[in-house]
């Protein structure tokens, strides 16, 4: 007999155990579904008993007969009867879209909703509610996870139940503090359903956002105008725009969830007993006017207004009505103009629904006085306390507004004011002056005649002259000095003061102001240093530009007489930039090599100034030296690229190099990111082929292609830099086409052809221009 302890036996035993567990799980699930179905059928039988006045047996037989005649299952017929009898939100959701959905699909949705309702009603806690929602209603919609959030009185969120998320994820998200923006928080603050097609695109953190980054929907759940929590549903895939039927089903489920989140009766929605007394005591303890508002619900439990339940002693009605006429009335009846869009009533609703407090230093309140609108400006504070809303407002009169404006201006300007009473000897400082001196508010103000004791020693003589003018000669005076504070900090201060006299020229007081100008002082110092540095930099730049221009003119004069070499006539033109600071690195060269071949080249170093000019000299001379080796144009470009990359820092350049053999009349050429030469033959101009070649200095090693063409009698070859055609108002392709048209024009001589091209192809970038013309006689 084989022992079950062998490896094969162990695997078989584990497999049988897993299959048994799965079978039991399915049986439990089927039993739960059957129990939910029986509960709905029993409820439908009860409806028939009440309507038909029959017994349970006759009701059961009638239900079975009606289901058979309608061609539906008893469960589906039971749900239809319940919907007809209830006429509640679920019945409305199931029947509103009968014309848009097939009957079978509509009945399936109705069964799911009623089954979910039954599961919620019989669920022992919110955790079981979440499981029932996912199993009966949301799973068939493709959802794989659900979370039920409970909203705290401070607008925090606590995870009350979940399904489809791991327990570890639930522990991580058991509490969301106020002010943290999550997917559920968005629905709470906006007080509306929020659909996220893709959570990863929304970028909001929430439970399971790493594992389930597909579609999400968050639905506020509340009753009586107060949001008690949020229902959050997760899909593993991105969501398409939902149909109206699906939206209504999800909102109906959130309404069911709201009833499971309600606190025991007596606490909501109206404060009762000790809670209400504490709220009234809180309002009475405030020095500002305060109201206590409690929600007023209609027969269906919807919030329609707020009762003004209490007004504290300091309360002042903007319309001048006594407290007795305000307390006990409805908010919108007493202040109907609060209902405007974005007005105070909407803020009250939001605070009551979400628990988020609202503060505003300035807000307009418009009320009616004998049917005439009266607007006042007030400071407003709204907060939810228990099941009510505490409204604290203070009307700002003109004096209060001006005092607050002055205080604000003094704080922004870092201005401290003082007054010394010459009769009583009293000294008054404002808060800013204590801050400037670095003293506590409880410290004694310092008389103006002791100003020298707190000044920098180097500034004491200036302080003395200021005090003599103010106190002895009794004239207005001003002074800028360095104030030494007890904490060792030195501040640059401007003080302005003047004496105040009565009608008999008797001195009454000395008034003045101190202003901290430290930031302005150091800004002026920094500005002066920057200006000095700028002048020096401009001088250095001008000197560099002058040297670059001299270097460029020494190597490449703007004009040069024609050059004859064998059967070639060579002419060059160079047009420098008009502005010295734009002196660039364009070059041209034409020389006869020891091999009797003729080297022709043009190039353009990126940038302007002395660096571009010196880079141009290096590359031009390097190409001359390399050409003596007898190498071809492609090899010369490869070597010149190595020179550019390794020997010159941060320089790139474009170039065209050509070698002409007089014996064979063959021109070989290569390019490094440069525009190809133009061949004019029989008065038709065309570019040579665009062979491959990267610009010089981009990489350390690069290969270059080589082109070859045999010149004929009367041919003309043009090589140029982009300064000839580059414009800011059109593309390079358009200007190249214009150049070909201009080059095709017949010219009496090579010199006149080059002059014509320079005159008729002027760019607008003020860049250097090099142009070489080669004519074969």
Automatic annotation (TrEMBL):
UniProt xrefs under InterPro entries:
ANTAR, Bact_Sigma-Reg, PAC, PAS, PAS-assoc_C, PAS-like_dom_sf, PAS_fold_3, PPM-type-like_dom_sf
Keywords (alphabetical) are: Coiled coil, Hydrolase
Coiled-coil annotated spans: 527-554
Q: Which Pfam families match?
A: ANTAR, PAS_3, SpoIIE
CDD domains on file = PAS
Q: Which GO terms describe its molecular function?
A: phosphatase activity; RNA binding
Where in this chain does the record put each ANTAR domain? Answer: 21-82
Where would I find the PAC domain in this sequence?
A: 477-529
* PANTHER family listed in its UniProt record: STAGE II SPORULATION PROTEIN E, STAGE II SPORULATION PROTEIN E-RELATED
In Swiss-Prot or TrEMBL terms, this protein is called Serine phosphatase RsbU (Regulator of sigma subunit)/PAS domain-containing protein
Organism (species) = Nonomuraea dietziae
């Amino acid at each position: 007999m084989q022992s079950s302890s062998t490896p094969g036996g162990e695997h078989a035993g584990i497999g049988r155990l897993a299959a048994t567990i799965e079978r039991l799980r399915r049986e439990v699930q089927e039993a739960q579904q059957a129990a939910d179905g029986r509960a709905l059928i029993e409820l439908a039988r009860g409806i028939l008993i009440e309507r038909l006045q029959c017994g349970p047996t006759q009701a059961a037989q009638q239900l079975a007969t009606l289901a058979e005649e309608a061609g539906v299952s008893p469960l589906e017929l039971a749900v239809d009867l319940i919907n007809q009898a209830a006429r509640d939100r679920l019945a409305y959701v199931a029947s509103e879209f009968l014309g848009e959905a097939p009957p079978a699909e509509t009945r399936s949705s109705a069964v799911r909703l009623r089954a979910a309702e039954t599961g919620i009603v019989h669920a022992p806690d919110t955790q079981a509610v979440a499981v029932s929602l996912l199993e009966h209603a949301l799973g068939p919609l493709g959802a794989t996870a659900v979370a039920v959030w409970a909203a705290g009185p401070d607008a925090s969120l606590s995870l009350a139940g979940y399904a489809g998320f791991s327990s570890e994820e639930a522990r991580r998200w058991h509490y969301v503090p106020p002010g943290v923006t999550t997917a559920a928080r968005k629905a709470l603050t906006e007080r509306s359903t929020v659909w996220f097609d893709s959570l990863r695109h929304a970028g909001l953190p929430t439970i399971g956002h790493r594992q389930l980054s597909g579609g999400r929907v968050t639905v506020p759940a509340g009753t009586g105008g107060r949001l008690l929590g949020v229902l959050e549903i997760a899909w593993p895939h991105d969501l398409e725009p939902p149909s109206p039927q699906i939206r209504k089903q999800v909102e109906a489920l959130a309404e069911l969830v709201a009833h499971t989140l309600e606190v025991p009766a007596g606490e909501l929605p109206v404060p009762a007993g000790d809670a209400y007394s504490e709220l009234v005591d809180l309002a009475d303890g405030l020095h500002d006017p305060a109201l206590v508002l409690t929600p007023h619900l209609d027969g269906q439990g919807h919030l329609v207004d707020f009762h003004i339940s209490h007004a504290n002693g300091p309360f002042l009605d903007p319309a001048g009505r006594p407290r007795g006429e305000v307390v006990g009335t409805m908010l919108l009846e007493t202040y109907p103009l609060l209902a405007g869009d974005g007005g105070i009533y909407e803020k009250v609703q939001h605070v009551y629904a979400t628990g988020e407090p609202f503060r505003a230093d300035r807000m307009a309140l418009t009320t009616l006085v004998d049917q005439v609108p009266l607007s006042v400006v007030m400071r407003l504070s709204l907060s939810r306390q228990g099941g009510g809303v505490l409204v604290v407002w203070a009307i700002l009169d003109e004096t209060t507004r001006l005092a607050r404006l002055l205080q604000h201006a003094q704080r922004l300007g870092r201005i401290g004011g003082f007054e010394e009473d010459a009769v009583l000897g009293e000294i008054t400082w404002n808060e800013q002056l204590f801050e400037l001196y670095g003293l506590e508010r409880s410290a004694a103000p310092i008389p103006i005649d002791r100003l020298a004791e707190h000044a920098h020693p180097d500034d004491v003589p200036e302080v003395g002259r200021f005090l003599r003018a103010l106190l002895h000669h009794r004239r207005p005076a001003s002074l800028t000095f360095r104030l030494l504070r007890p904490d060792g900090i030195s501040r640059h201060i401007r003080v302005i003061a003047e004496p105040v006299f009565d009608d008999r020229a008797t001195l009454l007081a000395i008034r003045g102001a101190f202003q901290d100008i430290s930031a302005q002082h150091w800004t002026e110092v920094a500005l002066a240093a920057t200006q000095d540095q700028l002048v020096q930099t401009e001088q250095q730049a001008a000197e560099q530009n002058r040297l670059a221009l001299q270097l460029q003119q020494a190597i490449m004069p703007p004009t040069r007489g024609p050059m004859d070499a064998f059967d070639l006539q060579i002419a060059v033109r160079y047009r420098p930039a008009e502005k010295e600071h734009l002196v660039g690195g364009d070059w041209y060269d034409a020389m006869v090599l020891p091999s009797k071949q003729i080297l022709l080249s043009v190039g353009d170093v990126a940038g302007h100034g002395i660096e571009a000019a010196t880079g141009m000299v290096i590359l031009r001379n390097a190409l001359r030296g390399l050409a003596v080796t007898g190498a071809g144009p492609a090899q010369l470009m490869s070597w010149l690229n190595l020179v550019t990359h390794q020997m010159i820092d941060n320089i790139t350049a474009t170039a065209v190099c050509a070698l002409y053999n007089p014996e064979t009349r063959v021109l070989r050429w290569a390019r490094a990111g440069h525009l190809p030469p133009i061949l004019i033959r029989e008065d038709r101009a065309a570019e040579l082929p665009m062979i491959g070649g990267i610009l010089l200095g981009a990489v350390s090693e690069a290969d270059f292609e080589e082109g070859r063409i045999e010149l004929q009698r009367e041919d003309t070859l043009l090589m140029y830099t982009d300064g000839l055609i580059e414009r800011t108002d059109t593309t390079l392709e358009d200007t190249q086409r214009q150049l070909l048209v201009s080059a095709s024009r017949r010219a009496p001589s090579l010199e006149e052809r080059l002059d014509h091209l320079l005159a008729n192809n002027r760019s607008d970038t003020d860049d250097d221009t090099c142009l070489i013309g080669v004519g074969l006689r």
